[in-house]
Each structure stands twice: as structure tokens, then as C-alpha cells.
């Protein structure tokens, strides 16, 4: 058994190196190809990195111009610069929807992900998570004129959105440990949360339920068309996604997040993107990190 475990570890390390080489290769005029065994090594050596974020979530990761913008995007820029020891790094942004985050890390499409990526036990089997860098809480958003839903339990029998790749709906429909409320609700599918919000506005849904930070961005964008109940019922730890086994980068990410809170940057970014949002409280210190594994 011991030999098998050692063999598996060697294979995993080899796979990690190959994955980073695929997205970290530099085939310029000289034809040189550089392979790195971790993302932090690639950032320091190549001064390039491919970062996955959401492109459809206001205040977190929204792309309307040349590159996305939002809280997650600015956290990514801060962390990457810290990984590089303060040097400038060329960042290539890749849209990373909830449905493809694990695949993108595994196949080397991206090096690292900052995309409202809640740390869960099932995801930790496939991904190494740095952080969390902030803790969100699941809440419910309804149309501004809806008086029939005033608490999460009122979602029984209602139409709620099931965004592809997201586990949020399970907190409503399933019992613990994977779920929370165990309610009978009608699921309406959508590709992402921006489509969920469109369906809510078009009266094709009764509610969108997911992390309060995500909902706050959409509510702010829509003016008074939607309202958030302000009754959070879960903790959602937003982690930094890495290829499984890249613990070296994980530790470096955690050091960067610690500094981000110590120097006040995290609080400043929160105020920049969520000031005035319904029911949100600015973080006062770095969350407790998950073990790098």
C-alpha cells in the first residue's frame, strides 16, 4: 500500500507539472518551452498567468470592456502581484463559469481561479483551495413588488433558479449535509446567474437564491426592481482555485490574503464594490484558512 501511495503522489506531481507547462509554455521566436511545477513558480519565472473569473456577475466579475472588473478581479490582481514579489505580471483573463471551473483547472485552461468559488468537501476532492479570501452567505432575491416571499422557508412550492454548476439550489431543496432547508420547490434551469436574474425579471421565476455578494451586485445593477430578503442561512467560503496538489501556491496565496487584510486593501475593495448594498457587512479580518491539500 505504501508503494502505491508513493506512486500516486509521483503521478500527481507529474500531472501538475504537465498541466502548468501546457498553459505556461512560451513558444516565442527562440522556441524555448518553460515548464513550472507550481503556479507561483510560473508567476515568478514567466511573469505570465492565466486567471479565471466570472464575466457576468456585477460587482464581482463583470466584463464590459477589454477585461473583467469587480471585487474578485481586484483580489486576483493583488494576490498575483504578491506571488510575483511585487513585480508586474501579464494576466490573461478567462471566463470561468460555475460549470467548467474544475475542468479548466484540471486541463490547464487556467492556472488559478477567483470566481465566487465556494469551498465544499466535494470540490476539495478535485481542487486545491487557497483562502478563503471572504465569506459570503446564501440569501434570497425576489422581485421588488413580491410580498409572498419574506423568508427562505416561503420558497416551498415556488419556482427557484438552478444555475448550471452551482450548488446553491440544493441548500433549499435538499436536507443536510449537502442541503439545508429540505423544501419542495420547482427548479428552473439556467446557464448562469445572469440568466437567472433575467428570468426573475421576466416573471419566469419566483426567486433567485445564492450568495449574498452575488445577489447584491445584481440588485445594485437593477435599481429597485429586485429586493434581497436579508436573511442569510449559510456560510459560503470563497476560495482561490488551484490545480489539485499545488500546495506551494496555496500557501503563497494565503500569505498574500493575510497581507491584503493587514494593509486594509480587502476592506477598501469591499467598500468600493459593495458600499450601500442591502444587508452586507464589511469584513474586519481575514477568514480562517482551509488546510492546503
Automatic annotation (TrEMBL):
Residue ranges crossing the lipid bilayer per the database entry: none
Pfam families: SBP_bac_3 (PF00497)
InterPro entries documented for this protein: Bact_solute-bind_prot3, Solute-binding_3/MltF_N
Gene3D superfamilies, alphabetized: Periplasmic binding protein-like II
Range of residues in the leader sequence: 1-21
Highest taxon in the source lineage: Bacteria
Keywords, sorted A to Z: Signal, Transport
Domain named Solute-binding protein family 3/N-terminal: residues: 48-277
Recorded family membership: Belongs to the bacterial solute-binding protein 3 family.
Designated name of the protein: Glutamate ABC transporter substrate-binding protein
Organism field: Planomonospora alba
Amino acid at each position: 500500500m505504501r508503494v502505491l501511495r508513493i506512486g500516486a503522489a509521483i503521478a500527481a506531481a507529474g500531472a501538475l507539472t504537465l498541466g502548468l507547462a501546457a498553459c505556461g509554455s512560451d513558444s516565442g521566436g527562440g522556441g524555448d518551452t518553460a515548464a513550472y511545477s507550481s503556479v507561483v513558480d510560473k508567476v515568478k519565472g514567466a511573469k505570465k498567468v492565466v486567471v479565471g473569473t466570472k464575466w457576468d456577475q456585477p460587482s464581482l466579475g463583470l466584463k464590459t470592456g477589454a477585461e473583467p472588473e469587480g471585487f474578485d478581479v481586484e483580489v486576483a490582481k493583488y494576490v498575483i502581484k504578491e506571488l510575483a514579489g511585487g513585480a508586474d505580471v501579464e494576466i490573461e483573463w478567462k471566463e470561468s463559469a460555475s460549470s467548467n471551473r474544475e475542468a479548466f483547472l484540471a486541463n490547464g485552461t487556467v492556472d488559478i481561479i477567483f470566481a465566487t468559488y465556494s469551498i465544499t468537501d466535494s470540490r476539495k476532492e478535485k481542487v486545491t483551495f487557497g483562502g478563503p479570501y471572504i465569506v459570503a452567505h446564501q440569501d434570497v432575491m425576489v422581485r421588488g413588488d413580491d410580498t409572498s416571499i419574506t423568508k427562505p422557508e416561503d420558497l416551498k412550492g415556488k419556482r427557484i433558479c438552478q444555475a448550471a454548476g452551482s450548488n446553491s439550489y440544493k441548500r433549499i431543496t435538499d436536507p443536510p449535509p449537502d442541503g439545508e432547508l429540505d423544501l419542495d420547490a420547482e427548479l428552473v434551469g439556467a446557464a448562469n446567474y445572469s440568466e437567472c436574474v433575467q428570468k426573475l425579471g421576466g416573471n419566469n421565476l419566483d426567486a433567485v437564491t445564492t450568495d449574498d455578494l452575488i445577489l447584491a451586485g445584481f440588485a445594485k445593477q437593477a435599481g429597485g426592481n429586485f429586493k434581497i430578503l436579508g436573511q442569510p442561512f449559510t456560510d459560503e467560503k470563497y476560495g482561490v482555485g488551484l490545480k489539485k496538489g499545488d500546495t506551494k501556491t496555496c500557501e503563497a496565496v494565503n500569505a498574500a490574503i493575510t497581507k491584503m487584510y493587514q494593509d486594509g486593501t480587502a476592506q477598501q475593495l469591499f467598500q468600493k464594490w459593495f458600499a450601500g448594498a442591502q444587508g452586507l457587512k464589511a469584513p474586519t479580518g481575514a477568514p480562517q484558512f482551509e488546510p492546503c491539500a
